[in-house]
Amino acid sequence: MNFIERPKQISVGVLALQGAFQEHIHMLQSIPKVSSILPVRTAEQLRSIDALIIPGGESTTIALVAEHSGIWENLKEFVRQKPTWGTCAGMILLANEANNTKKGGQKLLGGLDIKVNRNQFGSQIDSFESLLHIPQITSSPEDPFPAVFIRAPTISTINSLEVEILAKLGHNVDETDASTVVAVKQGHLLATSFHPELTNDNRIHKYFVEHAINYIVSGQNGKKEISLKDGNQNTQKPT
Questions:
Q1: Which pLDDT belongs to residue 102?
Q2: How many Cβ atoms from other residues are within 10 Å of residue 222's Cβ?
Q3: Parallel, antiparallel or unpaired: strands 181-186 and 164-168
């Protein structure tokens, strides 16, 4: 087998239909391994990128705009095949199931074998910041990631052993338990219920870019998926 050389840089798109896409673009500008950054609004733009970020915003609105603009089916195809990261509303859209949806239901891109609870922590006035220990990006519990939660979803159920838990809340928030899962990875898909783009910390963006590069190489070399973490995946369902 002829192994493909590891790319030094990749092109990353940010879905720019609604929500905090400009903040993700700004954060990506600080990462040397990103060759180009593209606000994505069309199928043609989607075809030109290596990896995609679906930002926070309003998941129902993003889905409606995507459907009306004719990009929805292209997004579903992209998510099935290429590295994609969903933050907050983006995590909802990547989930296979969602609770607390608006009247009429919620269109989902799917791909992650999880069920999410929309707006777990209440309205925007209930927003908060939490310091998370994420072993894949933080060197120790003394070097946590400042996670911003705004009308954030949480993961209520994990339905596959392939889903790797990256972070839990770490402390109780009102009636939400400290063990609640707020970040996961499954194959080429990554999801966080919080907003890394609203901080000055680009470590999760760097992690996603590195993850995307590794996945691209593994796919070209005939492997189905990769793991960036040494050791076993967390296979427990959240309590």
A1: 66
A2: 9
A3: antiparallel
Residue 118 is labelled as binding a ligand:
yes
Cα 201 to chain centroid distance, Å, stands at 16
Instruction: Establish whether 10 is an annotated binding residue.
Output: no
Residue 3 corresponds to which tokens in the numbers above? Answer: 């192994």
The C-alpha angle 93, 168, 161, rounded to 5 degrees, equals: 65
Q: Do the beta carbons of residue 188 and residue 126 sit within 8 Å? A: no
Residue type, 24: H
SS3 at position 182: strand
What is the C-alpha separation between 19 and 91, in angstroms, rounded? 13
Q: 10-220: what CATH class?
A: alpha beta
151 annotated ligand-binding residue: yes
Start-to-end CA distance of the chain, whole Å, equals: 44
Is 88 in the active site? yes
223-239 pLDDT, tens digit per residue, is 443 333 333 333 333 33
pLDDT at 4: 58
Q: Can 67 be counted among the known catalytic residues?
A: no
On average, the pLDDT of the chain sits at 86
Note if 129 is an active site residue. Answer: no
